[in-house]
Amino acid sequence: MTAVKSLVITGFGINCEEEMAAAYHLAGATADIVHLNEILLGQVSIHQYDILNFPGGFSFGDDLASGKVVSNKIKFKKLPSGKVLLDEIKQFLADGKYILGVCNGFQMLVRMGLLPNTNSDFEPEATLSNNNSGKFEDRWVYCKVNNAAQTPFLKGITQMALPARHGEGKLIFMDDEMRAKVSKEHLNCLTYCTEDGVETAAYPANPNGADLNCAGLTNPTGQVLGLMPHPEAYLSLYNNPNWGQIKRNNPDITEEGEGLKIFTNIVEHIKAQKLATV
Ligand SMILES: NC(=O)CC[C@H](N)C(=O)O
């Protein structure tokens, strides 16, 4: 009754679906990895699930722009019902459910208009472009949580080290007004920072030069979280190349990776919601 069910989308070059599913298993949820076509053909309904997940990867080889083709399929390809998947996703959110996108998945959510979605009209309000460095950045970064951000995914987290691996991570808001609105409403829920937790625009701590030093966004209701770094790739302390040093400095540290908390947070949150309604 209170089992939390997550749906992890794959296909077309998405390549982080197994890690994403492993994260949900460790967090105590079920995870079904489903090809996007199964959903577009009406064989699987997103409404059977509590959390919809868009993992990272290179969908359609980043052709046109990263995440662009998948987001267009979701916006424009007709399901057998005659609706488009974005209509179903709007219903999914109206039902109080949750969506997570990581890296290529974050890029899809931005291009679908799910993030930041300040006006709740699902019109794209930002885009992603090539990293300022002009190259693919593949290394660990630090990001800090905006304490004023309202999303259960980030509850109790202040800062995380996470792996980043992307070429198009530079988030750019539509205009100054949008940038100010996102900032004022604390939708820039994660920002790149130094190891000491100081937000920074400076390379390399900020790997891409994103507006507002943004590493992740949430929507105004907090139901949608998207981030460029990969929490599903930091499920165990031993994923961190500095684990030896970390353990020496803090011998009692948990052996969980800092990324796992995002998954346990949302699974526990949904479990509590389900218990409250039985
Ligand atoms: N790891 C990823 O999901 C990469 C996203 C995208 N292919 C990029 O390079 O920007």
From TrEMBL:
It comes from the Bacteria. Transmembrane segments: none annotated. GO terms for molecular function: ATP binding; hydrolase activity; phosphoribosylformylglycinamidine synthase activity. GO terms for biological process: 'de novo' IMP biosynthetic process. Keywords: ATP-binding, Cytoplasm, Glutamine amidotransferase, Hydrolase, Ligase, Nucleotide-binding, Purine biosynthesis. GO terms for cellular component: cytoplasm. InterPro entries: Class_I_gatase-like (IPR029062), PRibForGlyAmidine_synth_PurQ (IPR010075). This is Phosphoribosylformylglycinamidine synthase subunit PurQ. It comes from Aureispira anguillae. The lineage of its organism: Bacteria, Pseudomonadati, Bacteroidota, Saprospiria, Saprospirales.
